């Protein structure tokens, strides 16, 4: 059980113990930053409960956001299915990915199900942070906190998969102990190269003049999703540098990037946001 999942030994033991004892919470909240393997582990847990090997089954219901919104209509449809009798299994399991995208009315509708859960129903919510989910929902779930995978677990994984030390160092620089990024970098060399280039671009921005920075901002603004991923990568690497050097200017740049990332998640004009960010990088 969970043998192909990197790290998270404590969580795997917890869930495995629940399966073996047949003692579960009616609702779980898996919390942690992106790419830690929360959804993967939730799905594997659901498959163990149902007793299947395939990812798809009528008794496993998966709800994802559409354009960063989980609507009340989608929640009500999930509730309808969850209240139906199970197809063959003993349980019906709902996985709500990116639950931080629940609108207030959607969250309130879901709250009714959490307060009076179906007898055979188990709900697993997945979110980036506790603060992004309504406190009333948080209070009705068993919290399962995910953390970046330890150095030891990463070394064991790389050794077990014959990843060379040189490649492991490259992957670690972009992954920051996040299994989802590690696996993608191993499977897709083009992706690994792209991420390495984004880190080089950051150094170029520090050294470049305003014309270079504005040209880069224009290029990056063409895809808002990619822009957000690039800023997240830069933020993670600057945090590491900050821990090493305790540099005040690095701290200011980090704040500037975080502010820009926040605005990119709204309807703000991406190019204006990125150009303003470039103006404030020293």
Radius of gyration: 21 Å
| Annotation field: number of helices | 13
The whole-number mean of residue pLDDT values reads: 91
Taking pLDDT < 50 over at least 5 consecutive residues as the criterion, the unreliable ranges are: none
Helix content: 55-70%
Distance between the termini: 50 Å
**Count of extended strands:** 5
For the sheet with most strands, the description reads: 5 strands, parallel
Please give the domain count. Answer: 2
Order of helices and strands: HEHEHEHEHEHHHHHHHH
Structure class: alpha/beta
Give the percentage of residues in beta strands. Answer: 5-15%
The CATH class of the largest domain: Alpha Beta
CATH architecture of the largest domain: 3-Layer(aba) Sandwich
Strand order of the largest sheet: 2-3-4-1-5
Shape: globular
* Oligomeric state, counting identical vs distinct chains: single chain
What is the name of the CATH topology of the largest domain?
Answer: Rossmann fold
Q: CATH homologous superfamily name of the largest domain? A: P-loop containing nucleotide triphosphate hydrolases
Structural write-up:
Helices cover 57% and strands 9% of the residues. It has helices at 9-21, 38-50, 72-82, 104-115, 135-138, 151-160, 165-175, 179-187, 189-207, 210-220, 224-245, 248-264, 270-279; strands spanning 27-31, 60-63, 92-96, 121-127, 142-145. It is α/β, with parallel strands linked by helices and 282 residues long. A five-stranded parallel β-sheet has the order 2-3-4-1-5, sandwiched between helices. β3, α4 and β4 (121-127) form a beta-alpha-beta unit. It folds into two domains: 9-145, Rossmann fold (3-Layer(aba) Sandwich), CATH 3.40.50; 188-279. It is globular.
